[in-house]
């Protein structure tokens, strides 16, 4: 006897049209997002700076002619299909497995600085593999929150800029105090506006590479510190040009966005950022307990370090003001923001932010100041998240690559090829009593190389959860 199976299929047939509609809506939204994400907005002054004396090449001309990732038929960021939206791009930056991607070998130099602290500089290619060449260009790199030279986003850029196969620059990564194995030898860590440690590193570079042009590359909080340093130095800046990636720009404006923004901001990112800083302090707690000069009372450490679920402002209210001499969190946010010094920047600066960055809203970008600055060009991509910018790979056996590497390398190489006039350099004096080299007029800026060198391989290990922001 034949038994009809129509009754078995009928529920599926009723659901199928709705499922197809939802599927079409999903792919439609993904397609529209990809179109939006591919677009790039450029903000710059109507009177950009001239890069050569006769005025025939402006900063905007250089970007249009030499940075095809930003301008022209090859421009635009197009996300991989499986990371739609800023949150997915941002989270994958921290949770993805990059252990076999972009391995970099560094040579580490430890510098003792005048306040008793120690800086860890990671150099690639190592001098042991590629001896120093007179006049070789150097790029100083500053990383994100609690990050270091090991971060995947740093390694991706340096693979293009400083790999042994195509050494275009000698890279010097400044690992902030306490980060990535940098020892803490004074009761002081670092904050998002720390610029004196950049000065210490620049002084070492000027001494070690006396005839080299210096360039800069900053990521996230490191981008803010580097940009702030360039603005503070003004016309006397020793650096020839910088790229500022995912710069926070305005912490006073950005703090409410973290605290009261989207669900992810309030219940994920706020705790991740605060927890990362708390963990860094906890890792180096011993010196803050034992050093008589510690600005953090033991009672405060006893109460704060065991706390669970620490928000960013909690750390910046309880710890940061005492550690660095600010009145409160808002005084700190206002003082450290690089948006305050945009008008003083006097070297080529390319800034790149993502329009869907969940950490740094586009409202943080100081549009008015940038439009008045002849030296700053701000690019805003439609997508990319915070320090993600994962796009389909164009070769090399990979499934994806980091888009920002292209405009970064194109811009810095174009500036290098121009052969701009030498920048002013700080004068170096000797302090025989301490065995230090100091910056003339700034006894608080200087260095002494510590007789301990190490070869550091990055790419075989992984960062801590959500580190590097």
TrEMBL record:
| Domain (AB hydrolase-1) ranges | 137-388
Which BP terms in the Gene Ontology apply to this protein? medium-chain fatty acid biosynthetic process; medium-chain fatty acid catabolic process
What are the recorded GO MF terms, alphabetically? acetylesterase activity; monoacylglycerol lipase activity
- Which parts pass through the membrane? 12-32
The record's Gene3D superfamilies line, in alphabetical order, gives: alpha/beta hydrolase (3.40.50.1820)
Under the heading Pfam families, the entry gives: Abhydrolase_1
Q: Which key words tag this protein in UniProt? A: Hydrolase, Membrane, Transmembrane, Transmembrane helix
The similarity comment for this entry is: Belongs to the AB hydrolase superfamily. AB hydrolase 4 family.
Keyword Lyase part of the UniProt annotation:
no
Question: Any idea what this protein is called?
Answer: AB-hydrolase YheT
Database matches in SUPFAM superfamilies: alpha/beta-Hydrolases
**Highest taxon of source:** Eukaryota
